[in-house]
Amino acid sequence: MVRKTMILALLLALSGCVTLPSYVARPDESMATVEGVRFPMPAFCADGVGYQATPDKNGRFQVPTGSRVSLYASLQLHDYGVTYMCHPGASAVFEPNGTYFASIVTTSSGCRVDLVRKDEAAEAGLVSEMSKFGPTCNPWADTSRKAKGAKGAKGAKGK
């Protein structure tokens, strides 16, 4: 039994699983709302640090505004012994109190993140997010960076 436990612990340690911290906003910090539509297991990078997004029951989560934030999702499809994995990302500068919709679009050549902003003045009520670019950081790549506000955190805003 002890040997099985040790082998299981070793396999888990070698699996490369990374647990990301949750983002904790300052009381005076403005945030934007992102609603994930077909956006499983969302994560984001802010100030070069990766965070796990925590959606509510409707798939909405908060992201900081005022600087570029990279959004990510993780999609896994299984069919007849074949597994398709896709981890698309996109980045944008989110507007304070803005509402956005993010989704994964799959194509024959891969997948991507579509990001649109709610805009009541637009005919359809939605507009393409013009600040959208490719992701600027990978939340799972550098786990040595500390979450905002942590002692000695890189990129932490001390106010």
How would you explain this protein's 3D organization?
The protein has 159 residues and is mostly beta strands. The protein has a domain at 19-128. 8% of the residues lie in helices and 38% in strands. The protein contains one helix and eleven strands. The chain has one helix at residues 2-14, and strands at 31-36, 43-46, 49-52, 60-64, 68-72, 75-79, 82-86, 89-93, 99-107, 110-118, 126-128. The strands form three sheets. Strands 4-1-9-10-11 form a five-stranded mixed beta sheet, with no helix packed on it. The longest helix has 13 residues, at 2-14. The termini are far apart.
Number of strands: 11
Shape: globular
Q: What is the strand arrangement across the widest sheet?
A: 4-1-9-10-11
Helices, by number, come to 1
Strand content: 35-45%
**Stretches where pLDDT falls below 50 for ≥5 residues?**
1-16, 150-159
Average of pLDDT: 77
Helix and strand content put the structural class at: mainly beta
Write down the secondary-structure element order.
Answer: HEEEEEEEEEEE
| Helix content bin | under 10%
The main pleated sheet reads as: 5 strands, mixed
What Rg is obtained from the alpha carbons, in whole angstroms? 18 Å
Could you tell me how far the N terminus lies from the C terminus, measured between alpha carbons in angstroms? 51 Å
